[in-house]
Amino acid sequence: MERYRGDRFTAPAAVPFRDLRRVEDVLLDVLAGRPEPVDVVALAPLAPLGTHSVLATVDQNKIVTTVRGTDVAADPTNGLALEAAVRRRSDAAGGVARLAAIQRVVRAQLAGGPARFAHFSLFAQVTAGRDVGSLGFERTALAEQLAVIDTALRRLGAGEVEVRLTVLDPRFQLVADGVEGGVLDPDRESGRGYYEGLCFKVMARLGDAELVEIGDGGFTGWTRGLLSNRKERLLISGLGIDRLAMP
User: Which DSSP state fits 179?
Assistant: First the structure.
């Protein structure tokens, strides 16, 4: 009892379940209404040992590791990337894999302040496909994922949604230019070395509050490495459900 009451990893969520479920329902409803099919995956709560540190270059000390040689899930984009790679390898037609998931995750690093939790829910999207030239895959994938995010945030009452784009490779300026209403953020430091080409943050105004960070995303080389194919492309993004559900 004493351990349960005092351990941040085992305490119940600070946000009521009904509020979390309301946000999840909106996100899933937006996905269901998209013209392109998105497969919502029920991810396992565990991932192969080292998944987060190898794919996402996250320090293993920030991950809860089990005695059975697995990681407790810390980010659904990692699990979705593995699933996307499996599907890309087995798909003879080489179609685009559009996957999404809602997952309760655990982070081991200490983080204080409001909206900082040891475990929380994330909504994630990944789009995996093959390079089609002229950054065509990248432009389409980014437009699709941002459309889901923007529509969902508007339905959840966001008074303003701002996408802040950071170009990590000059070639991707073309991709950034195609984001309607996007704001360039060249001074962003986080995510460099994690993302490649282009990354973004999603800011939203909820109620009378100032703009706060709700989501993050960008292009990575994860499936390129997993499939040993330099033509593979992957876009990932995530939204914090607990923050959206907080009053």
Answer: S
